[in-house]
Amino acid sequence: MHGEDEEVIISDLDKAxxxxxxxxxxxxxxxxxxxxxxxKSVRDYTDNITSATRKFSMKLLIDxxxxxxxxxxxxxxxxxxxxxxxxxxxxxxxxxxxxxxYGYGDHDFLGFGINAISSLRGHVITNITGRExxxxxxxxxxxxxxxxxxxxxxxxxxxxxLRLPYHGYADKSQIKMNLVPDRLYGRLNELIDSGLIVxxxxxxxxxxxxxxxxxxxxxxxxxxxxxxxxxKIVHEELKTPGKFLSKKEIIYTAGLNx
Length: 258
Known about the structure:
With 258 residues, the protein is α+β, with helices and mostly antiparallel strands. The protein is built from 10 helices and 9 strands.
């Protein structure tokens, strides 16, 4: 987060590694959804606003350091102790929860608890907020939630839009490729031509460059309606009094080479 430099990050990682942990997850703080209080503290106590370009260079440094310590990436931000190979993402480990959240079309999941989200074919179920209200309703065998419906084509395309960027790999045999919309095919081909994705006979895979930009790829492959929803969330959050996001936090320096 803001005020943190490369030396601090490496020191923190080494302390975590020394604990003997099998897994370490690393990702930047999302400054859009953090509290106004945190935004105010950052502005009051530091002028060291971490730019998007510097965050990217930190990602490269972290990957090199974690691999040197015997950890391999297993998705866009998680590392696991594993034998080191030249693979972009190891296939020796995967977090089962994320296999369902960012998985294939037939990978449903049920969420339990306050604000929990469940995803079933064609439907998303969101539990109510508020602990007391949730507990009271469950004790009365009343399930308070919101249920939304969507085109089941979105479930079929989830492996390309979510799984491929997040896990770095999508098996074509588990995707109904004949249903892929022209727009999504076009975007995939653009990413392939740009060296971010490799298309072989049986799968799509991220290249190393693609792995660096996995979250951007995820957004790029989303339907326009879904992109609009995310953009609206960002704009609405930034209207909250006290929140601030500088241009350099979200815009990368032109001509950045990797």
